Amino acid sequence: MLERAPTKETTMATTILYPDYPTFTHSYRLVAMEDATEVGHVYVYIIGDPVKHGKWYALIDDLFVSEAGRGKGYGRTLMEAAGTLARKQKCYKIVANSHRKRKAARALYQSMGYVPHGREFRLDLK
User: What structural domains and CATH numbers belong to the chain?
Assistant: First the structure.
Protein backbone atom coordinates (compact mmCIF):
# COMPACT_ATOMS: atom_id res chain seq x y z
CA MET A 1 0.00 0.00 0.00
CA LEU A 2 1.27 3.47 -0.89
CA GLU A 3 0.58 6.13 1.68
CA ARG A 4 0.63 9.88 1.63
CA ALA A 5 1.66 11.92 4.64
CA PRO A 6 -1.35 12.86 6.78
CA THR A 7 -2.47 16.48 6.81
CA LYS A 8 -4.46 18.41 9.40
CA GLU A 9 -7.60 17.99 7.31
CA THR A 10 -7.51 14.37 6.27
CA THR A 11 -5.52 11.17 6.03
CA MET A 12 -5.11 9.80 2.50
CA ALA A 13 -4.06 6.33 1.41
CA THR A 14 -3.84 4.71 -1.99
CA THR A 15 -4.16 0.99 -2.43
CA ILE A 16 -2.83 -0.71 -5.55
CA LEU A 17 -5.64 -3.10 -6.46
CA TYR A 18 -3.57 -5.43 -8.65
CA PRO A 19 0.04 -5.15 -7.45
CA ASP A 20 1.26 -8.00 -9.66
CA TYR A 21 -0.62 -6.85 -12.74
CA PRO A 22 1.10 -4.36 -15.04
CA THR A 23 -1.27 -1.51 -15.87
CA PHE A 24 1.12 0.27 -18.23
CA THR A 25 3.84 -1.40 -20.18
CA HIS A 26 4.98 0.22 -23.37
CA SER A 27 4.86 3.48 -25.26
CA TYR A 28 5.78 3.92 -28.91
CA ARG A 29 6.37 6.91 -31.14
CA LEU A 30 5.79 6.02 -34.78
CA VAL A 31 7.08 8.46 -37.40
CA ALA A 32 6.43 9.17 -41.08
CA MET A 33 9.41 10.33 -43.12
CA GLU A 34 9.62 12.05 -46.50
CA ASP A 35 13.08 12.54 -48.03
CA ALA A 36 14.79 12.04 -44.63
CA THR A 37 12.50 14.64 -43.00
CA GLU A 38 9.93 13.75 -40.37
CA VAL A 39 6.50 14.79 -41.64
CA GLY A 40 4.33 13.11 -39.03
CA HIS A 41 4.11 11.06 -35.87
CA VAL A 42 1.68 9.27 -33.59
CA TYR A 43 2.10 8.01 -30.03
CA VAL A 44 0.78 4.56 -29.12
CA TYR A 45 0.47 3.41 -25.51
CA ILE A 46 -0.14 -0.26 -24.73
CA ILE A 47 -2.05 -0.44 -21.44
CA GLY A 48 -3.10 -3.38 -19.30
CA ASP A 49 -6.79 -3.34 -18.43
CA PRO A 50 -7.28 -4.74 -14.91
CA VAL A 51 -11.04 -4.89 -15.41
CA LYS A 52 -10.53 -7.26 -18.36
CA HIS A 53 -7.97 -9.34 -16.38
CA GLY A 54 -5.02 -9.92 -18.65
CA LYS A 55 -6.24 -8.06 -21.72
CA TRP A 56 -4.51 -5.09 -23.23
CA TYR A 57 -5.66 -2.08 -25.21
CA ALA A 58 -3.91 0.57 -27.25
CA LEU A 59 -4.35 4.29 -26.68
CA ILE A 60 -3.50 6.43 -29.69
CA ASP A 61 -2.62 10.03 -28.96
CA ASP A 62 -1.14 13.02 -30.73
CA LEU A 63 -1.49 12.05 -34.37
CA PHE A 64 0.29 14.88 -36.19
CA VAL A 65 1.15 15.48 -39.84
CA SER A 66 3.02 18.63 -40.85
CA GLU A 67 1.50 21.09 -43.32
CA ALA A 68 3.95 19.85 -45.98
CA GLY A 69 2.87 16.24 -45.43
CA ARG A 70 -0.89 16.72 -45.32
CA GLY A 71 -3.05 15.23 -48.05
CA LYS A 72 -0.44 12.60 -48.93
CA GLY A 73 -1.76 9.69 -46.85
CA TYR A 74 0.73 9.94 -43.97
CA GLY A 75 -2.00 10.17 -41.33
CA ARG A 76 -3.66 7.02 -42.63
CA THR A 77 -0.31 5.23 -42.88
CA LEU A 78 0.53 6.15 -39.29
CA MET A 79 -2.88 4.97 -38.07
CA GLU A 80 -2.51 1.70 -39.99
CA ALA A 81 0.93 1.18 -38.42
CA ALA A 82 -0.55 1.89 -34.97
CA GLY A 83 -3.26 -0.71 -35.65
CA THR A 84 -0.67 -3.26 -36.75
CA LEU A 85 1.31 -2.63 -33.56
CA ALA A 86 -1.82 -3.02 -31.42
CA ARG A 87 -2.66 -6.33 -33.10
CA LYS A 88 0.89 -7.63 -32.59
CA GLN A 89 0.60 -6.71 -28.91
CA LYS A 90 -2.67 -8.70 -28.74
CA CYS A 91 -4.78 -5.67 -27.83
CA TYR A 92 -8.54 -6.17 -27.76
CA LYS A 93 -9.36 -2.55 -28.67
CA ILE A 94 -7.86 0.73 -29.80
CA VAL A 95 -8.90 4.05 -28.30
CA ALA A 96 -8.01 7.17 -30.31
CA ASN A 97 -8.25 10.67 -28.84
CA SER A 98 -8.99 13.68 -30.99
CA HIS A 99 -10.23 17.14 -30.09
CA ARG A 100 -13.70 17.85 -31.45
CA LYS A 101 -12.30 20.76 -33.48
CA ARG A 102 -9.92 18.50 -35.42
CA LYS A 103 -12.41 17.60 -38.11
CA ALA A 104 -9.88 16.13 -40.56
CA ALA A 105 -8.48 13.74 -37.94
CA ARG A 106 -11.96 12.71 -36.82
CA ALA A 107 -13.00 12.10 -40.43
CA LEU A 108 -9.88 9.97 -40.95
CA TYR A 109 -10.63 7.87 -37.86
CA GLN A 110 -14.23 7.32 -38.95
CA SER A 111 -13.17 6.40 -42.50
CA MET A 112 -10.97 3.71 -40.93
CA GLY A 113 -13.83 2.19 -38.94
CA TYR A 114 -13.41 4.02 -35.62
CA VAL A 115 -16.69 5.10 -34.04
CA PRO A 116 -17.34 7.92 -31.57
CA HIS A 117 -17.57 6.41 -28.09
CA GLY A 118 -18.16 8.04 -24.73
CA ARG A 119 -16.97 11.46 -23.72
CA GLU A 120 -13.60 12.44 -22.37
CA PHE A 121 -13.19 14.68 -19.33
CA ARG A 122 -10.06 16.64 -18.55
CA LEU A 123 -8.64 18.51 -15.57
CA ASP A 124 -5.66 20.77 -16.23
CA LEU A 125 -3.17 20.60 -13.35
CA LYS A 126 -1.13 23.65 -12.54
Answer: 19-111 (3.40.630.30)
